[in-house]
Amino acid sequence: MKEVLVDFQPVGRRAQVAAGQTILAAAQQLGLALGAGGLTAPCGGRGLCGRCRVRVAAGDAGEPTPAERRFLKPEQLEQGYRLACQAVIQGPLKVEIPPESMLGVQKLQVEGLDVAVVPEAPVKRYNLPLTRTTIENPRPLWQQVAGELEATYGLERPEIDFNLALVTEPMAAGGTGVVTVRGKEVINIYAGRPAPPPLGLAVDLGTTKVAGFLINLETGATLAADGIMNPQIAYGEDVMARLGYALEGEAAYRRLQEVAIEGLNRLAATLAGKAGVTTADIEEAVIVGNTAMHHLLLHLPVEQLARAPYVPALTIPVEVKARSLGLNFSPGAYVYLQPVIAGFVGGDHVAMILGSRLDEARKVTLGLDIGTNTEIVLSYGGKMLSCSCASGPAFEGAHIAQGMRAITGAIAAVRLSDDGREVYWESIGGVPPLGICGSGILDAVAELYRTGVLNASGRLDLNHPRVRRPAEGGPAEFLLVPAEETGIDSDLVVTQKDISEIQLAKAAIASGTLLLLEAAGLTVADLEEVVVAGAFGTHLKLESAITIGMFPKLPLSAFRQVGNAAGTGARLALLSMAERQRGETIARQVSYIELMTRPSFQEVFMKSLLLP
Amino acid sequence: MAVLEEIKEALMAGNANKVKELTQKALDEGIAPTTIINDGLIAAMNIIGVKFKNNEVYVPEVLVAARAMHAGMDVVKPLLAGGAMEDKGTLVIGTVKGDLHDIGKNLVIMMMEGAGFKVIDLGIDVPVEKFVQAVEEHKPQLVGISALLTSTMMQMKKTVEGLAAYRDKIKIMVGGAPVTQKFADEIGADGYAPDAASAVDLARQLLAS
């Protein structure tokens, strides 16, 4: 296949790529599907979402496909707008990525509540006196280390990580050596160079976002925290699309694992850079993730997870050498993955329960971690029931006509005057808005309902002055921000279809809550506390979630928005063996409820579609 | 028969309790069950179906309306003598093996029943053999196959292949979020419908051809 020059703007990437592939494939190959400024492809490039819109400013990209005709108006096609996943490169091209199709700089949530814990890490440091290896003292380094550990610290028959021996100078130079021991195994040594404090990495590996924490394992202090987008997102936005990609073949599956590892290495390097250390100093890591992320990272079989009965391959905790996954940490470092509970309730849920202490809740407490899949736990009288509901990506901005992630330019809060005629909004970064994110669309729907612009079944009032039906057909829409106030060249609207997406999401969460209560023999009236975890859960306005019936109607004082509790749980499991074991106990204690097999599911779900 | 108009209104507003109440009221007024069904419940559901096709209403409203329709149906159905409903044809329908999703499929069922078809619902996670068995037993004119997951789409192909021996007697319709016309053609289905309302049109078309 001939190579042609493709010029991507505004990122300014020019490269020779093979003709005959789609623009999206070329962008992915150039790494333009990863990170800020890259091209988004939520549906995994199947022509189903219409989000990878680009403008072909010059060159031939073939005839528009039916999918493109569905998502693009004739005048847009005329202007050169195409879907990157559909348009096939025929010759040299100049491609513009419009702001709304770009992955932005994410407002990633990495903080989380801090729980006091006594550091008691799985790795321990020992200082050993070393004697220079010479002909008079013919004892090489490791012989001295093993001898000292036995003689001075009573560690019987210590082992040495083989790979560590391969990369360590075997001759002792004298002075003090600092070794790191995990169980009986020496996993790291600092001889003849100063030892930094023992470092650990805690990671919350989400479907969309990856949050990382670099921790001093002796003091428990968080040295650096940061987040990145999960690079696998270029291969499908939700868990199912990604599992589907993995099932396309071994090469595809390997690719998914590689990009995840690459992302983790990049995150670790960023954190190390911030803290003035190197990733080679990281001696222990804990990763928590949903079951799919867990399986895709470890390359476990996923067919039974992608299809009914939707079961994990492995639910026991996994401990492997970091290097066996390709993670560039200290040569002997281990990675611990918190156990998963069920196909859609993973180690992140265990970490959420651990991090928010729901396992010891004295009150009847509901814990929600809202995402594309929302996991809910009900803790009552020492028992825990969990479920997972398919709330969909609407709160991440997907499936919403002008939806976007919670990044600069997104409308994050909306309020209406009582007659719904005046709209007050806030955008992230205070810039002219480009779209609307989860908390913004939630507010909008709640306010439309509060002001009577929406009825209980979710229909927009066509007689309202801000509601209109577009001349070219399509759903009715509520004018949120007129074009002249936005940062794009069109009005920002909330469509009837957007509202239906929010109804489906809220119905999933509300019916999950009701069915868990039902399974426990309780009702909403028995609920005493609600813990809301996760990034979206922290930024959403509780009143709005209650108004539309997504959250149970309890006084606001009964709610706690705890931030990234899963990240906190991961840090706890990293810092303390007792906490790690507590997490394993939680995983065994939680009973999983499969909602779809509950006889009342259909009825409860349909009822929950109504507002509130 | 103002009560039938009231039933239609309540149904379109998704008020199940009111539909139930009004249906009982209509019976008390002596209106025939088939009239209540055809001119009240199904008439309203058809209006919703058209609005759905025109993007005026979306899935949640259709589901809410369908729930209201069922509330009314539950009142009148026991009073129907066998064969009182017109029979436009029989559809055997199910979600493929490996897939537990049924809301979309149930929408199709409601629309098809609303249009006068007899529907045999095989439910979810339906293996190929069960489809075959149902075709043997119920002798339908139509078979509907649903899949919601990209990971279960290929099971659809296997199901179509499994029904190869009956293709002169049945028409196969496929649908579900990841399914496209192109995919339907590739696996050799007779037709594809992007949504529940078009499924009814497709069914009529397939039976006419």
From TrEMBL, chain A:
<dbReference type="Pfam" id="PF00111">
    <property type="entry name" value="Fer2"/>
</dbReference>
<dbReference type="Pfam" id="PF17651">
    <property type="entry name" value="Raco_middle"/>
</dbReference>
<dbReference type="GO" id="GO:0051536">
    <property type="term" value="F:iron-sulfur cluster binding"/>
</dbReference>
<dbReference type="InterPro" id="IPR001041">
    <property type="entry name" value="2Fe-2S_ferredoxin-type"/>
</dbReference>
<dbReference type="InterPro" id="IPR027980">
    <property type="entry name" value="RACo_C"/>
</dbReference>
<feature type="domain" description="2Fe-2S ferredoxin-type">
    <location>
        <begin position="2"/>
        <end position="101"/>
    </location>
</feature>
<protein>
    <submittedName>
        <fullName>Na(+)-translocating NADH-quinone reductase subunit F</fullName>
    </submittedName>
</protein>
<dbReference type="InterPro" id="IPR012675">
    <property type="entry name" value="Beta-grasp_dom_sf"/>
</dbReference>
<dbReference type="InterPro" id="IPR041414">
    <property type="entry name" value="Raco-like_middle"/>
</dbReference>
<dbReference type="Pfam" id="PF14574">
    <property type="entry name" value="RACo_C_ter"/>
</dbReference>
<dbReference type="InterPro" id="IPR036010">
    <property type="entry name" value="2Fe-2S_ferredoxin-like_sf"/>
</dbReference>
<dbReference type="InterPro" id="IPR042259">
    <property type="entry name" value="Raco-like_middle_sf"/>
</dbReference>
<dbReference type="InterPro" id="IPR052911">
    <property type="entry name" value="Corrinoid_activation_enz"/>
</dbReference>
UniProtKB/TrEMBL annotation, chain B:
<protein>
    <submittedName>
        <fullName>Methionine synthase</fullName>
        <ecNumber>2.1.1.13</ecNumber>
    </submittedName>
</protein>
<dbReference type="GO" id="GO:0050667">
    <property type="term" value="P:homocysteine metabolic process"/>
</dbReference>
<dbReference type="InterPro" id="IPR006158">
    <property type="entry name" value="Cobalamin-bd"/>
</dbReference>
<dbReference type="GO" id="GO:0032259">
    <property type="term" value="P:methylation"/>
</dbReference>
<dbReference type="Pfam" id="PF02310">
    <property type="entry name" value="B12-binding"/>
</dbReference>
<dbReference type="GO" id="GO:0046653">
    <property type="term" value="P:tetrahydrofolate metabolic process"/>
</dbReference>
<comment type="similarity">
    <text>Belongs to the methylamine corrinoid protein family.</text>
</comment>
<dbReference type="InterPro" id="IPR036724">
    <property type="entry name" value="Cobalamin-bd_sf"/>
</dbReference>
<keyword id="KW-0479">Metal-binding</keyword>
<keyword id="KW-0489">Methyltransferase</keyword>
<dbReference type="GO" id="GO:0005829">
    <property type="term" value="C:cytosol"/>
</dbReference>
<dbReference type="GO" id="GO:0008705">
    <property type="term" value="F:methionine synthase activity"/>
</dbReference>
<dbReference type="InterPro" id="IPR036594">
    <property type="entry name" value="Meth_synthase_dom"/>
</dbReference>
<feature type="domain" description="B12-binding N-terminal">
    <location>
        <begin position="1"/>
        <end position="88"/>
    </location>
</feature>
<keyword id="KW-0170">Cobalt</keyword>
<dbReference type="GO" id="GO:0031419">
    <property type="term" value="F:cobalamin binding"/>
</dbReference>
<keyword id="KW-0808">Transferase</keyword>
<feature type="domain" description="B12-binding">
    <location>
        <begin position="88"/>
        <end position="209"/>
    </location>
</feature>
<dbReference type="Pfam" id="PF02607">
    <property type="entry name" value="B12-binding_2"/>
</dbReference>
<dbReference type="InterPro" id="IPR050554">
    <property type="entry name" value="Met_Synthase/Corrinoid"/>
</dbReference>
<dbReference type="GO" id="GO:0046872">
    <property type="term" value="F:metal ion binding"/>
</dbReference>
<dbReference type="InterPro" id="IPR003759">
    <property type="entry name" value="Cbl-bd_cap"/>
</dbReference>
